[in-house]
Amino acid sequence: MRRFLGGTAAAVALAVAVVLVLAFGGMLRLLEGAELEANAHDRAVQMKLVSGALASSFDQAAKFALALAETTARRADVAAALAAEDREALQRLSQGPYDYLKRQAGIQIYGYHSKDIRYLLRMHKPESFGDDIAGFRPMVVAANRTRRAQTGVEIGIAGIGLRGIAVVNHGGEMAGTMEVGLDMRPILDLVKASTNADIAVIVVPSLGGIALDDKTPRFGDLNLAMSTDDELFASLLKKSRIRPTRDIEIGEERIDGRAFSMVTQPLVDFSGRLVGLTIALKDDPRAASRRTHTELWVVALCGGILAFVVFSVLFQVALARRRGV
After folding, report:
1. Which CATH architecture has domain 59-182?
2. Which Gene3D superfamilies does the record associate with it (predicted)?
3. CATH entry 3.40.50 includes domain 189-286
């Protein structure tokens, strides 16, 4: 009889413990589902913000380059020197502004093109001049032929950058063009600092029609032009089949055991032609959530075991007292 009562107490205690564990589990499951949904929404919002910040930074930088080029192009002394193809005068007039802009604004390219599309003066490389650039500088060709300023991304034999090209007029006629260019790498660093996301610029030479230099890492058709973490994006491009599209895409990737949220967006040149894509990666916040969920499930299981022990003892005590009465 005593053994029967003891077994009954254990069974009741086990049933209570199981009910508590199931109740805890149901609550945790509902909590987990709600949290996953909230995390997915937050991830999409965060990656859209990264995408918007990058696009806005590129656009502002290109407009800044064009504003500097237009300001220079409107100088009468510069226009006269370009019309006369007077390199010495152009260099003398431009040295001060170029030195200042290079130091204060990170200007990478600052130069003048003659109306027959030859590079008359490179302030950033004055020893190189007179070369015909019509074959590999489509942005300069477009400005020359349309007589209109051009701004945006351009891929050349030296790489990819943001350019502003202004038309220089003198005496009612076009004297040539002037360009200001910015390196994209500092822009990536600034966006990373503000969003905590790593960013890469990927170029597809077959789309742009121009091959980059041999030093650029290649992964099939994709060239890793620049990034804030070359090793991370090299690992991504080795394992993933990423292709440029006309739409912004948000997804997830696992790279070397780490979970990331990822957004890809099209990279278009000054003419609107698709030439590649940009990729942003950010640590997936769900990794911390998964650890928390695991810990909560362990707590629920331990709570069930503790409940079983406590109720078993309580039933045994209650039965002992009842027998004493």
Report:
1. 2-Layer Sandwich (3.30)
2. PAS domain
3. no
